[in-house]
Amino acid sequence: MSNAAAARILFVLDDSRNQDALEKSFSDSYTVDFCYDAADTIHHIETTRPDVVVLNFQDDEMSPLAIAHIVREDRASHYVGLIYISRTESNDWLDKLIAAGVDICLPENRTQLQTQSAIASVLTLCSAKAEVQQYNQKLYSAYQRLKSQSFTDSVTGYGNRQFLQNQLRLEFKRAQRYQKHLILLLLRIDNFSVSEQPSVVEESVLTQVSETIGSSVRFEIDFTGRSRESEFFVILPETDIDGAISVAERMRARIAKLHQSVDGKHLASSVGVAHFNGDRGNFENSDEFYLSAEAAVAAAQDHGGDQYMAVDSPAESQVTSQIA
């Protein structure tokens, strides 16, 4: 918002008869512009963004009320003050103007001092609204940062366990409703433990594995992240068991090629695959679905690691397994 000395005032008039008098009265304090029809007024407001618009005209094609609606619908730009010079309108009409966003209505037989006072008051209002808008933007930015942090793993920058729980619940309900396939992969790095405060080496391993997993799935369709310590997750919407096994094997193969080692050994990983079949409704809820994937990855590690195991129902220990 400009200060008073630099504020831009737009007068919308029926004709140019009063232009010289208005320029003499206001040009010393403000930058003054003039328009003489509604269409030109809208264009001028959009291009020059005046601080205050004084509506003192009548137009059969577009009324001051319509202009007020158009100005107030544009919430992205700075607040534009609106002053209306009343002719012989009823109180009902003036109420509509105020409801549409006109800040002050002045009588037609106003004095110059009244007009100057109204402009000064509206400029003060604009300044206050600008401060409120800036404050709200800061609050919103802070909220977005906190929201992002609450769903983001601090080490890898990918989703965390909270994100997994929320997203899996949403995707499971969607798969249930539309009877679609849904896959949950849980991948663990074999023989790799992470301390409460990961070391530089541990962080490097976790970050590289996260990036490898992220590059192995569909961009903006699948969801990935770290659910705990050395465990990672992948949610694959509308993917059947064959597609899931293909993704699991691709991730395992790429992780094995990373230039990282644990205790002198190259990285190896185990994957648990849980498959929800929307046609059969083989899982009751997302918690049951997650626990099945967790049981599958634990079984894969118990069988020596470096393999995947898949489950297709809560009671099923494994449908298929593949040892590398």
In short:
The chain is built from nine helices and 13 strands. With 324 residues, it is of the alpha/beta class.
Report on this model:
The chain is α/β, with parallel strands linked by helices and 324 residues long. It folds into two domains: 4-145, 3-Layer(aba) Sandwich (Rossmann fold), CATH 3.40.50.2300; 161-323, Reverse transcriptase/Diguanylate cyclase domain (Alpha-Beta Plaits). Helices cover 44% and strands 20% of the residues. The protein contains nine helices and 13 strands. The protein has helices spanning 19-26, 38-48, 64-73, 91-100, 112-150, 161-178, 200-214, 241-256, 286-302; strands spanning 8-13, 31-35, 52-56, 81-85, 104-106, 182-189, 223-228, 231-237, 261-262, 265-266, 269-276, 307-311, 320-323. It has a six-stranded mixed beta sheet with strand order 7-8-6-11-12-13, with helices on both faces. The protein has a five-stranded parallel beta sheet with strand order 2-1-3-4-5, with helices on both faces. A hairpin with an 8-residue loop joins strand 12 (307-311) and strand 13. Helix 2 packs parallel to helix 3 (64-73). The longest helix is centred in the middle third of the chain and has 39 residues, at 112-150. The N and C termini lie far apart (66 Å). The relative contact order is 0.09. Residues 317-324 have low confidence and may be disordered.
